[in-house]
Write a structure and sequence with these properties.
The complex is a heterodimer of chains A (108) and B (114). With 108 residues, chain A is mainly beta. Chain A has strands spanning 3-5, 10-14, 19-21, 24-26, 32-38, 45-49, 60-61, 72-74, 83-90, 96-98, 102-107. Classes of the chains: A mainly beta (108), B mainly beta (114). The interface between A and B is medium-sized, with 26 and 26 residues.
Chain lengths: 108, 114
């Protein structure tokens, strides 16, 4: 079964501290993985995808097939990073599967 | 202003009534999706369409119906058969139907059943 797990519903870090949002997936094929972000009063939008291997707003995410993980990381959190983050998997049947989301709060 | 437009933003309905949520996109995208967002449950797929006049059920299609008569439009009807319709509904589109591309989301519609 295809599934995305985000174990933390809420995560708080201090400004300038490193942040890691966890994402684990279950998928038998070659996964397409994404992180989406929703800032306050804004639409849900793509933050990054594993295939691009790029850093967006200082965030990176590495696909670890052995651990079936796609954790989102940033070395120094900023207040503007406070948002809701969703990990998503592109699976069979042309469907996207989303995790339950992690609400990140960066404390000034 | 390009993008996805959902209407209405807020909708109230009485039990037993059907209601239709509108989703329009001017991005020339082939694929469109409807998700339901409930607290603590993330986004769950209701229906999706990869091309005009074709659509497939998602994980929670019961009590919902859709149509895709035009490329730009993908309305969702919440029928009286949907047991727990109060929720936040998100429409999205992507340039093609494969689950590899970026999803573009609307601002959402919040439905409350009284």
């Amino acid at each position: 079964a295809q599934r995305v797990t985000q174990p933390e519903k809420l995560l708080s870090v201090f400004k300038g501290a490193p942040v890691e949002l966890k994402c684990n997936y279950s998928y038998s094929g070659s996964p397409e993985l994404f992180w989406y972000v929703q800032y306050s009063r804004q639409r849900l939008q793509l933050l990054l995808r594993h295939i691009s291997r790029e850093s967006i707003k200082g965030f990176t995410a590495d696909l670890n097939k052995g651990e079936t993980s796609f954790h989102l990381k940033k070395p120094f959190a900023q207040e503007e990073d406070s948002a809701m983050y969703y990990c998503a998997l592109g699976g069979t049947g042309n469907q996207f599967y989303f995790g339950t989301g992690t609400s990140l709060t960066v404390i000034p | 202003d390009g993008g996805i437009t959902q209407s209405p933003k807020y909708l109230f309905r009485k039990e037993g009534q059907n209601v239709t949520l509108s989703c329009e996109q001017n991005l020339n995208h082939d694929a469109m999706y409807w998700y339901r967002q409930d607290p603590g449950q993330g986004l769950r797929l209701i229906y999706y369409s990869q091309i005009v006049n074709d659509f497939q059920k998602g994980d929670i299609a019961e009590g919902y119906s859709v149509s895709r008569e035009k490329k730009e439009s993908f309305p969702l009807t919440v029928t009286s058969a949907q047991k727990n319709p109060t929720a936040f509904y998100l429409c999205a589109s992507s340039i093609w139907g494969g689950a590899t591309g970026e999803l573009f989301f609307g601002e959402g519609s919040r439905l409350t059943v009284l």
